[in-house]
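pasting for ref
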Amino acid sequence: MEILFLEAANQVLDEFVPDFWRERHFQMFFESMQHVSFRWLLNAEEYVPHQELALVRQHVVLVSGRIVGALSRIKLSDVCAAFVKKLEERVSARKDLGTRAAEHATQRAQALKLCAGMHGIVLGFDTDSQLEQSTRFLQIVHPLNYTAAVKKSQVHHALCLMLTDILTPLVRSNQPNSSSGLNPALLADWHTQVLRLKNDIGQWANKHSKHITVGYPLVTVLVCLVDASNYSSLVDSMADFLAKQMKNKEYRSLCFKCLNQLVISSLVRNAGPSCSQQVVAWLDKIVKPVLVNARKGGISMAEQQDFVSDVADLNPEYCAGGILQDLLATDSHDAQLIALRTLHLVAKSVPADSAAALDVQASMLRRSTTLAASASGTLGSGRGAGGRRMVQVGNGWLDGCLPDARLSCSGSM
């Protein structure tokens, strides 16, 4: 029954329009759902202790997290205040007051569960009020503001992961930069807070290697969100830093994903009918060496596929002319298969008579027989994976099944 109730409540919240808030009944419903969702996030294991009901318990926690996200879209300030109040109650206990170790462990575990439930929070930028609340949220949930008495890094790490998940969608949506009519002074406050948080987390992550796995992704996202005056220099320095850090096998995959985020940001913020020569030069400097480095090991084929697919999604023409031909020209079967999978997306997005499409067509004609013969067995995973080969028909391309592939050709690449 609890699942049915929570799912129904979530649907009601998803249908919210501003007129709802005028009704006292809806305000009471909002307060009630905030209380219920936080209670489940903190005490799910106590309420449903039986291991055979673990999947049910996980589902309730998942829905509760979605409800928190829906509530944040309606009134972020209330959700933030409730989160901070409950977090402070669990990290403020002092070690010298005789609190037992078991109590510290319980409070810390609840704090971590609380942070995990906040990953769905949504920051709004449609109005000045939403922008102000979002800026305030960044100030209040600064990870280093909350230090547990024991094992303090766990709470810091949980808050960093939470913020990374909350802020990452802003990179693709280019918020708040793409919003119009916002108060310039409030925008400046937002960018100031982003830069301050980036500097604080960067210094903290560099103090100890145990912070790197959560620090680098958050700093990368924050770099993507800085104001236009700082963006170019910070992205360049961050890309160079991450490329150098890829030499460390322990952090190769992490840095590769962070570089992927920087490339997405650059393509989004420089979006237009075609890339400027400056942007193309930057992409060539970053993307090509990174992909070559990735093929040396330590980066899964799925991660490489995701990287190339993101570039193709945001700028198919550059991907066709700047990446796919290089992948097709290598002796690596994995690289060739990544190119084939991505080609379907590119062929659908790039005009058939464009220079990039014609170049790829010519390259494909030379290599299609070899690639089809070499494709065998499982082709791996990754976003948009599939087993297809592009066949030229007139000035366009159709996708046909790789003859030797065992994967089904009924789906898209």
